[in-house]
Amino acid sequence: MALIQFVTFRIENNLIGINILHVREINRVLDMTPVQHSPAYVRGLVNLRGQTVTVFDLGVRLNLPSREITIDSHNIILKHDTVGLLVDSIGDVVDTHDEGIEPPPANMGGIDEELIEGVVKLEDELLVILSAEKILAYKANNQ
Amino acid sequence: MNEIFDENVVNEFLSESLDHLESIEPDFLALEEQGADASPETINGIFRAIHSIKGSSGFLGFKSLSTIAHAMENILMKYRNKEMVPDHDAIDALFEGIDIVRTMLNDITASNSLPIDFELDKLNKILNEDAEPATPSEENPLPQKEAAEPDMPPQKSTSSEKMTISEKVSLTLEEETLNEVVLEGQKSLEAIEMDLVSLKHEGTEVSHDSIANIFRAIHTRKGVTSFFGFDELALLSFSLEDIIADIKDGKKEAVPESVDALLSGIDEIRAMLKKIKSNQHENLTHANSADTPDEKQLPVPHASQAATQENANKKSPPPPVPAQPQASATKSLQPSSGAAAAKPAMPETIRVNVNLIDRLMNLAGELVLGRNQLRQELAEIVFKNPKLGTVMQNVDSVTSEIQEEIMQMRMQAVGTLFNKFPRVVRDLSRQLNKKVKLLIEGNEVEIDKTILEGLSDPLTHLVRNSMDHGLELPADRLKINKPESGQVQIRAFHEGGQVNIMVLDDGNGIDPEKLVAKAISIGAITPEKAANLNDSEKINLILLPGFSTADKITGVSGRGVGMDVVKTNIEKMGGNLEIESMMGEGTYIRIRLPLTLAIIPSLIVGASLRKYAIPQVNVQELVRVKAMDVESRIEKIGDSLVLRLRERLLPLVSLSAILDLQDSSRKVFSILSNNDTDDEPVAKKIQDINVVVLKMGGNSFGLIVDELFDNEEIVVKPLSAHISDTKCFSGATIMGDGKVAMILDASGIADFAKLKFTEIQTEEKRRLEEEAQMESDAMNRRQSLLIFNNAYTEFFALPLKYISRLEKIEPTDIHRVGSRHYINYRDQELPLIYLENVLPVSSFPKNPLELYVIIPKNSDTLGGIMVSRILDTVETEVNVHKTDATPKGLHGSSFVGDQLTLFLNPYEVLDLFEKQSLQSKLPMPDIAAMSQHGEVSPEKIIRMGDDEH
Hints:
The complex is a heterodimer.
Chain A: E1 3-11, E2 14-19, E3 23-27, E4 42-48, E5 51-57, H1 58-61, E6 74-78, E7 83-87, E8 89-97, E9 101-102, E10 116-121, E11 126-130, H2 132-136
Chain B: H1 7-34, H2 40-60, H3 63-80, H4 88-106, H5 117-134, H6 144-148, H7 156-172, H8 175-202, H9 208-227, H10 231-248, H11 256-279, H12 284-290, H13 293-297, H14 302-310, H15 327-342, H16 354-384, H17 386-410, E1 411-413, H18 415-418, H19 421-432, E2 436-441, E3 446-448, H20 449-470, H21 474-479, E4 486-495, E5 498-505, H22 512-521, H23 527-531, H24 535-539, H25 563-572, E6 576-582, E7 586-594, E8 599-607, E9 610-615, E10 619-625, H26 627-633, E11 634-637, E12 640-645, E13 648-654, H27 655-658, H28 664-674, H29 682-685, E14 689-696, E15 699-705, E16 707-715, E17 729-734, E18 740-744, H30 746-752, H31 757-780, E19 782-789, E20 795-799, E21 803-809, E22 815-817, E23 820-825, E24 828-833, H32 835-838, E25 851-856, E26 864-867, E27 869-877, E28 890-896, E29 899-904, H33 906-919, H34 927-932
Parallel strand pairs in B: 2-4, 9-18, 13-15, 20-29, 24-26
Antiparallel strand pairs in B: 1-3, 4-5, 5-7, 6-7, 8-9, 8-16, 10-14, 11-12, 12-13, 14-15, 17-18, 19-20, 19-27, 21-25, 22-23, 23-24, 25-26, 28-29
Helix pairs in contact in B: 1-2, 1-4, 2-3, 2-9, 3-4, 3-5, 4-5, 8-9, 8-11, 9-10, 10-11, 10-14, 11-14, 16-17, 19-20, 20-25
């Protein structure tokens, strides 16, 4: 019975979480340089203290519309591959026990099911847990 | 036994030994060259290296390695003692020995199972066959060093011979070598001491590592010192070594007492080393005659006594250390000792992991960015507070310096790579029976480590090619009046921010026809295409895959993979390769490489308000096409736009279009490519166009960009896997403002745009031919000609199509400025050309009946040709003869009617006129004089600056 912490954030009103162990930092470095002819889910490159970080438009990655950048937008920088995820807004860190994670229901509001690791039932809504690994996996056909 | 040693110990031994091997290879070559005159330092250097490999490997249990090293050492000993003279076969054997040692070192765990009999036999044969005639009495091939080690102290009688030798060696030693020995000694002593101290603390639970370390260090000391003739040092070391060996073998325990003895032994050695250093030379062998027993006792270290006690079975107390350096020794070295004292110690080096340097470099990059941002943010405050300005400036310069220095850390001299070639060339020349002189230049040129590593294979390949395919056999060379031995040159130098490396040979050169035949036979090109190639293009066929033209495949080269691989490897590193060759005279290969892969000079361009970087190596030139010229210079061939640039057609690509950006230049592009006929004329919508001409390999194309910025040095950041296959970019970088900019990949863009270079080249060729054809046809077709005079006796013809206007003028219309004549033509001054000034023809008449001016087409104000009489306009079929003697300015001559008529080339005439008027004053006919003859009244001629008559 291990305790797992999730960084949560919102994309189109979905509450989504990602294991905190995969997260390096969260920032608002949003001055992105687009990379033409890259896969559609690549939003661009940002300069993170001298390192170039490839930022994914998490909306596109999850099969949802592309995200608009607002004053709530954030980048979640993952630990691996120096990839960042552009999200609409940032939520709390949620603690849960691993047996609290349930398999995803059939319909997840259009989110690509392959990327979902499971769901956690919170008091008033459902937290969708994403698999960092699968998000990072290169999807050649996604153009 | 090696398993029980810490990996670190073995690794250290390995890297040290490999370094040794590298350093002695050139010495071997020198040895071969100098033969009997080989300098003692050379032999010493080799000997020391081999000996320390022998010692360490023996101790670590690598028996084969030690055996081979021992055999080599034996031979070297003979050289040192002048009992043998190095010859080619011996050096061959030694090289083979070195090679097998290297093989063993590279896979040390398997070293003992590697068969070494062949090499060993060879070495021993060399030793024996040479040894017997030279010193038949010598039965024991063991080196004399071994003889110095045994239980018996050196006898005066037996050692006297050796003394003279070692004396000679020592006296001829350069101080530098000596200093090195001392320095090295002192360093290793420190290390030994530390290990000893830990030994003392650990007591019986000693680790094998520390014992191994101590043993190794002491053993090396022993070998080195005995070799240099510091016999007392050697013997002391020897005693210490024995103790350690006993501890190692478990015969003795590392009790504090023995460790103490060892430590004081070390102190003693250190004292001796110090003395050697201060006196430059202290060779006890000199002392023997002067030494009294008292003196002997005086300096004998109690450590040695302790050591001796520990080794009851060893009877010999080490020989004494003299209190005073010997007068003779001091005297003989006096001149050099001063110089040596002034000489600074060798710069110290440490080994650092490359990853660490890479990370440091990244951090330095971040630091620079941070500094830039800080500077921007603080600009206002700094303005108010000048003190802060100084601080900022300081941070500024230190940051830049840090970055530079870290870059420098990655740089290595190409010499480290070049140094392996003397060996390669030597081996090959023996193998191929060719005589070769190798010239190496520019060893000191520095280049990024990564590039240097990548350069090794291509360069080796090129040198091999030169030797195998390029150079002729000595006999053949003599036949064609070339010096018997061929020459291969490797040169490195800086040029234009790049490193150039050239490989030249004076061999046979590359036969272009042979390459063509081969290319056709492997189906690389069609015979038709081949017919159109010029020699240099033919030679470049060698870069196609699968080429090998050597008649027979040799062990050296010619396996059919080759130049294309070389080229690919060079291009991978951002470099390029050029080949030139003259049949019978040699081949010249030039490689251009960037200094570093991490930081590259780039041109920053803009498209749609974004900045992109183009590596400077790809940029050939920048062209600005004026808006008014766009229509005439840019056109469409097939699907592609081309720019007419000088004689060539350059395919054009718009950066914005390629990257799907919306902006003005894209509009231009689409207008041009669709040939849309809008209401407005195209020219009004378009502005000047900036074209960056990019080159990759033999092809070039133009990239239309919106803006051109500065050249900048950029730090290349690799692309993540998600975007690495976007063809157009090779990387990313961070600009001074902190934004990320993409680095454009020239060849990727060409691919992406599907540029059809061949199509355009064919068109280009067709046009050139057409133009040439038209030129010659033009004169031979039925033409309308204007026939006129300059001098009345000579007839000129000019096709009407060249003529814009024919103006009748009056002498009064001629204005003179200095020596030049002008008329007012459409409110502009038009210079007048008298044909005799530009062509070898008779002069314009002094009093012409009429005056005309021909204004050639497309040259409105360049000049008008003066005509003294119009004879006729005729339509006729003419056949203009042009010979080599036909001067510039004429198409040639032909008979029109029955008059020999000279056909003018008006553009060449204008050209000549312009050149001449730039160079000097033109003599003009004196029209003032001619006016005196009547028709024109003198006062009508406006005289300005009339200073010549």
